[in-house]
Specification:
alpha+beta, 16 strands, 29% helix, D-amino Acid Aminotransferase, Chain A, domain 1, D-amino Acid Aminotransferase, Chain A, domain 2, 284 residues
């Protein structure tokens, strides 16, 4: 049972007893957005980018957090300190508020919840020998709501369950055109013909904060980069595949649908960018 504190609408309460009304729309309809962040030594990496994305998604979906961005930022840092977890997993969720019926009616007071726990990370083998991927039966829509990190997360849960059932670590999600969009809980990069390729958000994936950082690092290193649709056949032929998210950071994928990716070992592009990312975090 969690024994730390949680932030709920301005109050710090024991996480084990934290609660919202049963009519919270995040619970009832997935009518909420969230951010997952990672803190290093008490500093949240690229917190401004995470909060900017959350506020942009709220605006696009027609509501606004009750707390200003600066208040939420201060609340996150305070919670990390109070929970004594300087290296932390942080989750911020903002729902539209409370109300029944699919159509939101009238003004609602949005609900904000923040969790901060010691980061557990992923298995060391992911980075040592690479992750195994499967292609999910779940499809995402190009140009759909995938650009927003919503609490409507059942598609990703289903894809991860498929991966686990197949003895894999993660699942690749294709869009309705059969092109790779993202993974269930990570963005996707491939090295194809010596070029670093990642699908744009218009293909149905999330514009990840870690993804953006990796693109910046690749540009600094003058690597050839293309943000463009990634056909399944090109993904199958990639010499490297790696995944990114805030907690995972960068991790290589060395098998896809039980076939090796490239040499079947973590690749040099991943190694270079993972090292650059660690330096970026260290100096942030």
């Amino acid at each position: 049972m969690p024994d730390g504190l949680a932030y709920v609408n301005g109050d710090l309460v024991p996480e084990a007893g934290a609660a919202l009304p049963v009519t919270d729309r995040g619970t009832m309809y997935g009518d909420a957005v969230f951010e997952t962040m990672r803190a290093y030594g008490g500093r949240v990496f690229r917190m401004d980018a995470h909060l900017a994305r959350l506020f942009a998604s709220c605006e696009a979906l027609g509501f606004r957090p009750r707390e200003p961005r600066a208040v939420l930022a201060e609340a996150i840092l305070n919670l990390i300190e109070r929970n004594a977890c300087p290296d932390a997993y942080v989750r911020l969720q903002v729902s539209r508020g409370c109300g029944t019926g699919p159509l939101p009616k009238g003004e609602m007071a949005p609900n904000a919840v923040i969790l901060a726990r010691p980061v557990r990370g992923y298995p060391a083998r992911y980075y040592r020998t690479g992750m195994a991927l499967v292609t999910s039966s779940v499809r995402v829509l190009a140009g759909g709501l995938g650009a927003h990190k919503t609490a409507s997360y059942l598609a990703c849960v289903t894809a991860r369950r498929e991966a686990a059932a197949g003895g894999a670590d993660e699942a690749v999600l294709l869009n309705e055109h059969g092109r790779a969009a993202e993974c269930a809980a990570a963005n996707l990069f491939a090295v194809a013909g010596g070029v670093l390729v990642t699908p744009p958000a218009s293909e149905g994936g999330l514009p990840g904060v870690t993804r953006a950082a990796v693109l910046e690092l690749a540009r600094r290193a003058r690597r050839a980069i293309e943000e463009r649709p990634l056909p399944r056949a090109e993904l199958d032929a990639a010499s490297e595949i790696f995944l990114t998210n805030s907690i995972l950071e960068l991790a290589p994928a060395c098998a896809l649908d039980e076939r090796p990716v490239g040499s079947g070992r973590p690749g040099e592009v991943w190694r270079a960018l993972a090292a650059a990312y660690r330096e970026e975090v260290r100096h942030a």
